Amino acid sequence: MRRVIPPLAALPFVALLLPAGCAPVRTGNLGPAPGGSSPATATPTGAAPGTPAPATSPGGRTPSPSAVPTAPASGGTPSPEGTVTVQLWFTRDGRLVPTRRTLPATLATSRLALTELAAGPSPAETATGMATLVPPGWQVTRIANGVATLAAPAGLDGGGATSARLRRAQVVWTLTQFPTVRRVAFAADDATPSGRDDYADLLPPIVVTAPAVGDRITSPVTVTGTAAVFEATVSVRVLDAAGREIGTAFTLAACGSGCRGDYRVHVGYRRATAGPGTVEVYEVSARDGSRVHVVAIPVVMAAAG
């Protein structure tokens, strides 16, 4: 496949590691769900690879650790000091968008995730357009052979076909992060459980899995996710509170035009003081060079020389 590198005027000089091959979207290729593939990396010249800042709980909600469902799923991302980090899939502009919560550890991770999904986005996440269509009351009644069976509350398919499908997608993408869950049945007699592939078309062109809204970051910040963009080129810039560009980089996703691939890039920045800022991930338009499919993540930035 012919690779087109964006103009040097728009993008800084970086060292690229080109990923090999392309692959279609498959269940479990985002977040801590099973079956993930290793993303490509790119590091700006002179910057040492870093690690993402620890996930936070921007919503400030603390579900009861003692609440245990009938058949709890194991999983989530282990975190220090008796906590667990779970990935939640909310909606924005009719598409799925991920965020994270770090909460007190519990065996009931499936219920924890569903409770947080129903509680909805934090004020900071809401300000970016995130929302939830999932009502409270969802219960996992059984997990067997990779299938989580739910007892869904009334109104599962309310609001029309589009909303109903997006609601189901939120639940499927959230629950399949756990190693014991690969598909979700929405009733005991559901003969066709759903997996991530069934809702892959609801992903936006660019998905950002890290950093999350409200994360505290240091330089270089590690930006990860998946993308289905022209010639696989994913661009990132870091902005200070005034909107000034203080760091840029780009990389190639593991798959180019017409398919979705993982990406990972380390972006260095310089700022004299700590404070709020934004990490923007976007595609450079092949038509006019403008930034398109922009995903803006508000963060708290450490000072960096």
Automatic annotation (TrEMBL):
Residues 31-74 have a biased composition (Low complexity). The keyword Signal applies. Residues 110-198 form the GerMN domain. The keyword Coiled coil does not apply. Keywords: Signal. Residues 1-22 form the signal peptide. SMART domains: Germane. Residues 29-83 are annotated as: Disordered. This is Sporulation and spore germination.
